[in-house]
Design goal:
Layout lengths: L2 H11 L4 H4 L6 E5 L4 E4 L1 H7 L22 H14 L1 E11 L3 E14 L4 E10 L1 H34 L7 H24 L5 H10 L9 E3 L9 H20 L9 E8 L5 E9 L12 H13 L3 E7 L2 E9 L8
Helix pairs in contact: 5-6, 6-7, 6-8, 7-8, 8-9
Length: 334
């Protein structure tokens, strides 16, 4: 039996038997005109851990050592109800002894007994704390998703604008842009489905899998456990994609027998991640005469997105790259 059914029954039949009151699943009180408790449901006693003998006949605001002497509740029963006859889902936030901070939704209805014109009131109490907490969590998640989507569109727009078009075909431009967007999507996907200390290894495996021409072409060495923010994952995904693309075009992965070794360490204070990329077995390396877009992207992402730095060493035997990433969230740029 719900609140509506009990209200109709009490109004038409004037029945207040305890068995009927106990059919209401949520805590409920029946109050007289002076706001003393005439009856209470079993769920009320169980939820608020009070005894029947210390409840029935007592003024509502004196129950449980005054735990129901709540300003919002007083206003509801003494000011709102007399004018409205019924109030539904009136929110009350209060700290209850033994329960802690709770959010209650109160529904109150006035009963008028035609035989003697007396008044009584039904007061239903629904603990909506967990529901409100879930709603807050959903709002935070939606806000984070909106923020991420906005950032992703911004990054995609930036990549499209900055990917060079001079001296290359439309197909080359398309392939470069789609490759970078693919790396970004892989990192974002991991950020949603995998938030633990193995996420860096999983990110490297996903980003580098398309470049794995042979079983020994790319070696990802085991490293220490590390937790990374989703923003850091996206940035590292872009950097690793650029390094792998460069290796496939000009470096170790462009020649049979070439190898790339990827590893990472954490400093003693656990405040900085150091990602190492080492190539060997490829063509002889000569420092580039000018800085290409890929190199610019690596440096800018490391500095501005990660709040860290990058070091690129064009050694003769192969490119060596070091990416330094702060692990404190407050070190990330806004």
């Amino acid at each position: 039996m719900n609140m509506e059914d009990l209200y109709r029954l009490l109004r038409t039949s004037h029945v207040q038997a305890q068995g009927i009151v106990d059919t209401v699943a949520d805590p409920m009180l029946v109050l007289d005109a002076s706001l003393c408790v005439q009856n209470a449901s079993r769920s009320f006693f169980e939820t608020f851990k009070v005894d029947r003998y210390e409840t029935i006949g007592q003024p509502l605001f004196e129950l449980g050592n005054g735990q129901w002497d709540i300003p919002d509740l007083r206003r509801l029963l003494l000011e709102v109800i007399p004018k409205a006859t019924a109030v539904i889902n009136y929110q009350v936030d209060h700290v209850f002894p033994g329960l802690g901070s709770r959010t209650m939704l109160l529904t109150a209805r006035t009963l008028v007994h035609p035989d003697n014109a007396s008044h009584s009131m039904l007061l239903s109490i629904v603990d909506a704390t967990e529901r409100f907490q879930r709603d807050v969590a959903k709002d935070l998640l939606l806000g984070e998703m909106r923020h991420r989507i906005k950032n992703l569109f911004g990054v995609a727009q930036s990549l499209a604008r900055q990917t060079p078009i001079e001296g290359r075909s439309a197909q080359q431009y398309r392939d470069d842009l789609l490759g970078r967007l693919g790396a970004l999507m892989e990192a974002e996907d991991l950020a949603f489905v995998k938030q633990d200390e193995t996420v860096l290894a999983a990110l490297l495996e996903r980003i580098l899998a398309p470049y794995q021409a042979g079983p020994a072409a790319i070696v990802i060495e085991p490293g220490p456990a590390v937790e990374l923010a989703s923003r850091s994952l996206s940035s590292l995904g872009l950097i690793c994609h650029e390094l792998a693309t460069n290796a496939a075009k000009y470096g170790a992965l462009s020649k049979a027998g070439g190898e790339v070794r990827v590893s990472w360490t954490i400093d003693a204070d656990k405040t900085e991640l150091r990602l190492s990329w080492v190539e060997h077995g490829g063509p002889v390396v000569t420092p580039p005469a000018s800085t290409g877009y890929g190199t610019k992207l690596i440096r800018s992402v490391a500095s501005y997105s990660l709040g860290g730095r990058s070091e690129l060493d064009y050694a003769v035997e192969g490119l060596r790259a070091e990416i330094f990433v702060p692990l404190r969230s407050d070190s990330l740029p806004n």
